[in-house]
């Protein structure tokens, strides 16, 4: 057991320092997501994170789920001014009017994409050819903030009416939902995910 703990401590991406980050890194980050509700959740949370740390958003994630009806786009798309005012007083989320309004707008467009493609999953994974891109970064400084794929995704999302979907936000989304494997090669999760492992045992 001690050897397992030691291996994880040594072979983990260097940004995973706090307990919250370690849990997220080891069980979620980079794991391919194909569930529309979870994809929508990450899309909204990545937009909310703009200008803040991802750890701040992770700490508020439970509150976000409660405040935004478990990220059900069909419900969020119908939010009116009364709900917006309520969200602006909710200390459990990022109380930013533009980000809250963007979440509602994105829910509406998300539903439109589902209507067009059948699922949002079918649409969004098309930007990487429907399979995770396996990278092989050795150092954290090698990992890009955006790529041609995220540029293309951002441009198309914006064209459709999505908000808070700049290329950098799109790439963070791609990393989170496993469209790219950006665990460093020295990280134990890199090999697990490149072999198609879902979660560590």
Secondary structure blueprint with pairings:
Layout: H1 2-10, H2 19-27, H3 36-49, H4 54-67, H5 73-76, H6 81-88, H7 97-117, H8 120-124, E1 133-134, H9 148-160, H10 167-176, E2 180-181, H11 188-194
Parallel strand pairs: 1-2
Helix pairs in contact: 3-4, 3-7, 3-10, 9-10
What are the main properties of this structure?
globular, mainly alpha, 2% strand, 11 helices, 201 residues, disordered C terminus
Which regions have little confidence, pLDDT < 50, spanning 5+ residues? 1-8, 197-201
- Average residue pLDDT: 92
Q: What is the radius of gyration computed over CA atoms, rounded to a whole number of angstroms?
A: 17 Å
End-to-end Cα distance, whole Å, is 13 Å
> Sheet with the most strands?
2 strands, parallel
Structural class estimated from helices and strands: mainly alpha
Count every helix, treating DSSP H or I runs of 4 or more residues as helices: 11
Percent in strands: under 5%
In total, how many beta strands? 2
Q: What overall form do the CA principal axes indicate?
A: globular
| Strand numbers in spatial order across the main sheet | 1-2
Provide the succession of SSEs: HHHHHHHHEHHEH
Helix content: 55-70%
